[in-house]
Amino acid sequence: MRGIATVPSYVIMQPTTLCNLDCSYCYLPHRARDRRMPEAVARAVARTVNEWAAQAPRFSVVWHGGEPLAAGRAHLAALMAPFEGVEHHIQTNATLIDDAWCDFFVHHDIHLGLSIDGPRSLTSRRRTRGGEAAFDRILRGISRVRERGLSFAVLCVVSDPSPELAAPLYEFMAELGPTVLGVNIEEQEGVNHRSNAHDPARVRAFWAQLTAAWRRDPRIEVREVEWALRFAAAALAGQADELLPRRHDPIPTIGHDGGVLLLSPELAGFHSERYGDFTSGSVLQRPLDAIVAEAARQPSGWVAEYLAGVEGCRAACGYFGFCGGAHAANRYFEHGRFDGTLTRHCHNSRISLLEGVLDHARAA
Amino acid sequence: MPELPDPADAATPVVDAADLLDRLRRAPGLASLVAEAQTTWRARVHAARDEAGTARVADGDADPGPDWRAFADAFPTFWEFTNRPR
User: Fold this and answer.
1) Do B85 and A362 touch (CB under 8 A)?
2) Cβ-defined contact of A358 to B24 (cutoff 8 Å)
3) A247 falls in which pLDDT band (50, 70, 90)?
């Protein structure tokens, strides 16, 4: 994996910075403010995206937040209107979902991602703006989705990756019934300054126990465990080098104001003396394809430093073939720059993951 | 709680890539775990293709084929692992 592709396979859109929740681990800096994306930004993005989508079997537009449903149905529909030939995805905390939203999802053929961290005790860091537990509201929204028979994925944050919590987490999720479960160990990122340093042996045991729970009843897809097994399968077949893509997807994230952030949605809304606002341009001033193509041809600023960091990972870390290098946001928020390599996120969510799956295989 | 390496020491190799691959190949139980996973993946593709009315995957096919992109199909925040530019 070297360099950046000039055409992505998806873009991420920030329809509003606002979130109606105030989860204690959230990284978003402006989640209390409702800065909405103007329709002009969506139209500018769609001019490029519709061309990309016409040339690809599939192209995704991911509506992320803030909380995208906080933008309201009418505004979200207006933002989606200029796009043609794309799949729309929404990642939502589910608390605002009612029958009208379910109608909206059906009408726009939305791919849904819902955020819940497990049973009540494991979802305790998700809070309303008034500080109340959000679990019941989340579950109520998910129930609406289930009652309507809509397919959904789940993204969960694990703040305490203890081995004894893995099986209850998996069993709860299997009953909930998503197609796919993504498990994010809480990251020290953005405005969340809580340390993500954990005992590596316990994190490894957490992943081993999660693998065991999935193996007993693999009715849902677990992104992390199955990616590790995908890598293991490739390694056993002598094809480990062929697993990662040849180039990085630029993953353009379009902020509410039209600013384009490449490679790392988590950097949206941040500013640094050294790197500025991390954007590579604005779709209100230049076409999106020109912004992406220039960054791919001549990487500069933090993007160039990040690509140097990826090469550092390739040279220094034996797990590179599994992960493709530490994520940009984790480097920045843990190291203060982009050309460092090993992060605590690497330990928690890559190294301990692969080793935990191996531990399970050996012990089974 | 054990201290993790300081970022300043991050260039220190964690493990050699060849050693890791060798460890994977020699890990007892891994081949059967992978085989079970591949069976699960094939079953998912069969179910999806049955639903769509398209051709099934041959049972001997270890990789379910080009429509194996379930993370990307299902997950909006799929950049975690499936960063797959054409």
Assistant:
1) no
2) yes
3) confident
